[in-house]
Amino acid sequence: HAQLKTPCFISRNFFTETNIHTIKDISKISLFSLASQDDIDILIIGTGASPQFLAAKQQVDIQQMNIGTECMNSESACRSFNLLLSDIRNVGLLLL
Questions:
Q1: Could you give the C-alpha distances from 28 to 34, 43, 54, 74, 88, in angstroms and in order?
Q2: Which numeric CATH code is attached to 8-95?
Q3: Domain residues of the chain, as ranges?
């Protein structure tokens, strides 16, 4: 079992700590290296104790990568990730 510190990224076949510390740090460039490690269709973003949301430009940029996004508190994000993963969905989890 690996123990990760936040911020980190987790998908079906890949996990790593990342330098994306805040919701404002999320961009196509910052996500490209993570998303290219595993085929993901949806990215769940856990933003700590309370939900924070992507700006409209961030959402559009990520949609251009053919990745949908959902932002929520980290506890809910972990539950949603596990549920979607059990449904054999191509999902990634970014915990800030």
A1: 10, 12, 12, 21, 25
A2: 3.40.1230.10
A3: 8-95
If you ran DSSP here, which 8-state letter would residue 9 be given? E
Give the SS3 label for residue 24: helix
Q: Which residues pair with 71 in a beta bridge?
A: 45
Instruction: Show pLDDT as tens, one digit a residue, over the chain (96 residues).
Output: 667 788 999 999 999 999 999 999 999 999 999 999 999 999 999 999 999 999 999 999 999 999 999 999 999 999 999 999 999 999 999 999
The answer to whether the CB of 40 falls within 8 A of the CB of 92 is yes
Cα–Cα nearest to 37, from 59, 68, 9: 9
